[in-house]
Amino acid sequence: MQPGLSDPPRFLLMKTSSLGDVLHNLAVVSDMRRVFPGALVDWCVEAPFAEIPGWHTGVRRVIPVAIRRWRKQLLSGNTWSEISLALGALRTERYDAIIDTQGLVRSVLLGRIAHGPVYGQNWREAREPLSGLLLNHPLPVPYALHAVERYRTIAATALGYADQLTELPLDFGLHERFPLQPGNEAFLFTNTSRDKKLWPEDHWIAVGQQLRKAGLVPVFTAGNEIEAARSQRIAAGIAATSGTGKDPAGEVLYRPSLTQLTERLAKARLCLGVDTGFTHIACALEVPTIAIFTDTDPALAGGFGLGLRETFGHLDSCPPVSDITGQLKAWGYLPA
Questions:
Q1: What CA–CA distance (Å, rounded) separates 236 from 257?
Q2: What is the pTM of this model?
Q3: Mapping DSSP to helix (H, G, I), strand (E, B) and coil, where does residue 247 land?
Q4: DSSP 164
Q5: Phi, psi (deg, nearest 5) at residue 87
Q6: Given a cut of 50, is residue 323 above it in pLDDT?
Q7: Is 70 exceeded by the pLDDT of residue 241?
Q8: What letter does residue 4 receive in the DSSP assignment?
């Protein structure tokens, strides 16, 4: 144990928002628990993603916050009750290190409310430069790293094990909770948060048709009625072009919980997805995954994991169907 750390060490992880980013920080918990086996790790996270830290056996306590909702309902008594409970939970004990991997003012301010020194990227590297000025210990960790590498490096630099990081295999800590049991389903994550990140519906239909002919059953997800309609159009298009009749080819999961989705995804044979947190879950589970990027930089947030994976596209691009089917043929999912 490092000098100055309590026994056992107590750490608070501040990664509050974005499904994919919260998921990626599971690897940080694995690193910390291997370097400090008895460490007590708490995690402050936005309420919609509070299920994710609980998947890791190394997380002792999850502290949910709802900053986005609180901003919209500041006049509500329930809001202030929730805020009081969250702030009280943050201040229940003293931490040896509070680690902010998010680089945003709101996450650093929450960290400053807790008891303990706050570490994170300095003002030159943080997503919001002001956040770097609010830290007790600003760190020179470059932003221009893939998100997983950046988060792991921030924690390793803060806690003094950066020289050991290359010896720590990537581990999201999911296999105990979600063992892989591949069947014949292919998850197609066709929806995402911004229209610019979508892949054309006719492209999905063309790929889905070939997957159906290869004996795989498409599964879609939808978080709202617009997404459900899009998924259903694609499923119907696959059915119409693959000889399966008028009934939709595949199943649309409407607003599953993150845990329900991940349990089902662990049983998939394959995943194809746009830049969405669900695609990152598939990569972390080590389900064979093709990530399709059309408006974001995959060098910073592309598919990341130890399993079979490939990312196509880049900023302002639209990968053709042939790229995806070519990779599926190379992996043996489609006939050459």
A1: 25
A2: 0.92
A3: coil
A4: G
A5: -65, -35
A6: yes
A7: no
A8: T
E-assigned strand segments in the chain: 10-14, 40-46, 59-65, 97-100, 118-121, 137-139, 185-189, 217-222, 251-254, 270-274, 289-292, 309-312
Residue whose entry in the numeric block shows the structure tokens 């909770």: 177
Do 143 and 125 contact (CB within 8 A), yes or no?
A: yes
151-179 per-position pLDDT tens digit: 999 999 999 999 999 999 999 999 999 99
Return d(Cα 61, Cα 180) in angstroms, integer.
26
Ordered structural domains, the chain, with CATH: 10-167 (3.40.50.2000), 185-331 (3.40.50.2000)
- The structure tokens listed for 176 are 């105990």
What are the structure tokens assigned to 170, written together?
A: 């990537």
Measured in degrees and rounded to the nearest 5, phi and psi for residue 44 equal -95, 125
How many alpha carbons fall within 13 Å on the CB side of residue 288?
17
Which runs of E-coded beta strand occur in 203-269? 217-222, 251-254
Are 296 and 274 in contact by the 8 Å Cβ rule? The answer is no
Per-residue pLDDT tens for 49-106?
A: 999 999 999 999 999 999 989 989 988 889 999 999 999 999 999 999 999 999 999 9
Check whether 246 has a pLDDT greater than 70: no
Q: Cα(120)–Cα(103) distance, rounded to whole angstroms? A: 7
pLDDT at position 7 over 50: yes
Mean pLDDT over all residues of the chain?
A: 93
Nearest partner of 305 among 256, 334, 265, 335, judged by Cα:
265
